[in-house]
Design a protein that fits this description.
Four copies of one chain form a homotetramer.
Chain A (H helix, E strand, L loop, with lengths): L13 H7 L14 E3 L2 E3 L5 E5 L6 H13 L4 E3 L19 H15 L3 E4 L3 H10 L2 E4 L7 H8 L5 E4 L6 H12 L6 E5 L2 E2 L10 E2 L4 H8 L4 E3 L1 H5 L2 H14 L3 E5 L17 H21 L1
Parallel strand pairs in A: 3-4, 3-12, 4-5, 5-6, 6-7, 7-8, 8-11
Antiparallel strand pairs in A: 1-2, 9-10
Helix pairs in contact in A: 2-3, 4-5, 5-6, 9-10
């Protein structure tokens, strides 16, 4: 089969596949990369779950969540330490925990045998993050910060690349190609919602794009997961969109979990509490078993 | 519980629920309408499947599809007879079958015990459609054609209301309210894709909005289904989005099925053939069983 | 020059121009229709201004505005009598004035020698509107209500066709073609804002698309105007966008003018008062003189 | 007048103005910053024009354009030396000229007494760019690359901040605040088109948002210009949108000018040639004279 003939009317052309992102392009229908992050396999038969708080607020909370995660067979622990903020001023409750948070996260992961993923916001942080985390997250606002992409890639750590909230699939592939070109093929894509005219909440502006899942599966061998927490910005809708992601063929989900959502330092409407998270993990497991059988 | 206090930051306010669409508004978390269309129940524990061609091209094809549908336990037969076309000129292959098509559809439904749904494009057609079909579809381009909504509602036939491709959830509720106000409460909503900046195919411009599923479930008691065929405009992505819809909590899906997609009179890239449709029906059934258990 | 060769990469292809909307298509770079509405010429060297209230609330207000309009050399009087409402229930202040309003509008126009334009919402109203108005407006929600388009066209009255707020330029041309095909070539297009991710006001959701002006000028001979009042939904921004429309090459603007905006029966944030309207008319005149010289 | 009371229904709240971007917020209706870039004043009574090639391809072309610019009273010379590319591979014609290009640009500016603006793509380039250019441009893909913003700001050079193509006005203000917080108040905003459902060309995806001009004028004292070349991606539409920008109240425009557009190394559909540029400069001048009088 010639992949290159199969894209009439696609935003991404056969010529793009050959010359714009040859490394990210799928070479054969069965071509699929599996990224191993400290034992968690992303892109294989099992879905992955990356769960944890938006911000690693203190040591206790991240150890509590890590313990819960381990008990519930969550694949990876996520948590923000360095964070890009829309505004330079922080709210009353907010405090960035930086390197200290990174160490808490790292220790919590080690203690419970969970690989950890966290974001690097600037080139100068990359080394530090690479030292303490198992996977480096590039955030939506930095998807086209090409020097950061290349610097992160050169650590040879697995990379989680979030789609820019205004970026096309073609832009997304371009960003992926920068990472792959450094010889780092441990790359996972993440759809996290895009700007759209209607999002059904006055306080949010993102719509989870699930058409990108089959679209990405057609053109690239890279695994792709979704982040329904940031897309919906509203805890009651997270489960529906997480399940939908897996049903659409996503290789996993990244979910915000907090021990006390109402008192979260950032975005309190968004995280699930532990009880809701446990319910979601169970639901995802049941669903994934079926989806595996029917695709 | 007071529903009206639960919508801070929602596009739809508590005031809207009370004064703009009191009939469509959910009055209690368990408030859920079940619409019965000739035996098919929409909004209950079982999901519904409405399948059939974009255009009822001839008698043979609709009987073949009806037979297949019956054998595969599809809930309802869909097919277009009268169609709103973007341009007044028809392509070489295209021909509207109108009343003749309506009779073929109706007979095929009767023959195989399947309720049928088809679109009414103008007020003057409503009576005719009501006479021959079990459910009247209002298309996306007519969602705010209020005289048509009211005329269709007054037949007391069940109505399938497709969301306008530029319409907000609030607009959608307004259109629903026009129908309910006529005393017709057999109303089903249908998400069919909205205009969005990126859709991943150069020839399409719609993105299936699955956030509307939990959003609608919060504010209205009306059932809601999706149409992944029109949203994706690309057969290979239909299964992924149909499964995602059910996982997100939709009450069913409407799917284009054709006996020979390549030679379809309209939109040949969109329909599934019978084999693909059989596979999809099986997958939906397996998925729905699980989703029912985990929600 | 062959128009058909000049559209590489255009949403509208040369094939569309030939086969989808041959009547609306521009046949030569100088091909430009001028629509005469009771003496007001739209599409010629002079810009047109259509001003008046969203709703013709009573006789006094429309006569006051008509008198003001005449004194300020406004081209046409606009005013709603029949209106499509998102919800079936009207607010406290709101009342549709229907035929009575239509007569007030018509008499005010006659008294001051101003052609009038008003909307027809349903096929059954078309005759009545045609009898009392000089131009029939088709609203954004009805742009693809094809029976209404054809019915309105057959009155042979000039038609003002507003772009659907989710419609593409190609959709817009399709709707225009339905009207032209009835032998009615007195057709004016109107851009009134489209749904977009960011509109800078929480209570509005439209963005005035000014790229459509040069785009339309390339492919169609039909005049095109804009409606900055509905697009911005905010009186303080109307002047900026009205001026921008003319600078972009629009053939005119439609503006909401009210004698007492704060107490307007509908959308009180939107209309200009008479003083602001006078200022705008003067500004538009000055601008148009310059724009004519530099294009 | 209390600005803070004047934003009911605005995406940006009074609370945002006080606590999220107090430095960028307008404190009084007449509060307006004028940024002086080597003699060119941005934000004052005169509009500014920044013209030049997408890429400074060689010494000859930039000197030719600089000479032309001086003769035509263009305010500033623009030209790319370092460029963020969507894909890591360059086309046949493309070559980044980097430091060499920067020196050509700088010398051409000096020779003809024109201040120059060029983009810095990474923190490590900032010093170099600051040394050779009069104004540092932050590109759309880097609008939320906060370390880059702060680094550029600390050079105390004037900054041209382009809006992210998916960013809200609120996001834009947040990015501006990062720059102002470094004590650098020589900041100019630039609207360059945002992602939108319809853009009227298959090969482009941006819509110039002119509603942001009056919106920005309401909430911030910072000057704002537009870039119609990148927004439209199509030379024949640039003039219309440039004129519209000035009519809407923009403080200037940035335009791509090339000596030989057909053979441009990047985006050949976009630049104006010198003849077209001369025509545009004249038209802008005539228009600005009128707009100044009517606002």
């Amino acid at each position: 089969m010639k992949i290159e003939n199969s894209f009439p009317g696609k935003d991404v052309s056969a010529e793009d596949l050959r010359s714009k992102f040859p490394l990210a392009a799928k070479q054969h229908p069965t071509h699929q990369t599996i990224v191993n992050v400290g034992g968690a396999e992303i892109g294989g038969r099992e879905i992955v779950t990356m769960m944890g708080p938006n911000l690693v607020e203190n040591s206790d909370m991240i150890f509590t969540i890590a313990k819960w995660a381990k008990e519930n067979k969550v694949s990876m622990l996520r948590g923000g330490c360095f964070k890009p903020l829309t505004f330079p001023y922080r709210g009353e409750k907010y405090f960035e925990t930086g390197l200290e948070g990174l160490k808490w996260l790292s220790r919590a992961g080690s203690e419970y045998g969970l690989p950890v993923v966290t974001e690097a916001v600037s080139e100068s942080q990359v080394e530090l993050v690479a030292e303490h985390a198992d996977m480096i997250q590039i955030g939506t606002r930095n998807m086209q910060n090409f020097p950061l992409l290349s610097t992160a890639a050169r650590t040879m750590k697995p990379i989680l690349l979030k789609r820019g909230f205004g970026a096309s699939l073609r832009d997304f592939m371009g960003a992926a190609e920068y990472i792959l070109l450094e010889g780092n093929s441990s790359l996972v894509l993440c759809e996290r919602g895009v700007v759209a005219p209607h999002t059904h909440r006055a306080t949010s502006r993102f719509l989870l794009d699930l058409q990108i899942i089959p679209a990405a599966k057609e053109i690239t061998h890279l695994p792709i997961i979704t982040d329904p927490s940031h897309a919906t910005f509203w805890a009651p809708w997270v489960k529906a969109l997480a399940l939908a992601s897996i049903a659409a063929g996503a290789d996993g989900v990244m979910i915000e979990t907090h021990i006390d959502p109402e008192n979260a330092a950032v975005d309190p409407l968004q995280p699930l509490n532990l009880e809701q998270s446990t319910d979601l993990v169970g639901a995802l497991k049941s669903l994934a078993d079926v989806v595996r059988g029917i695709n």
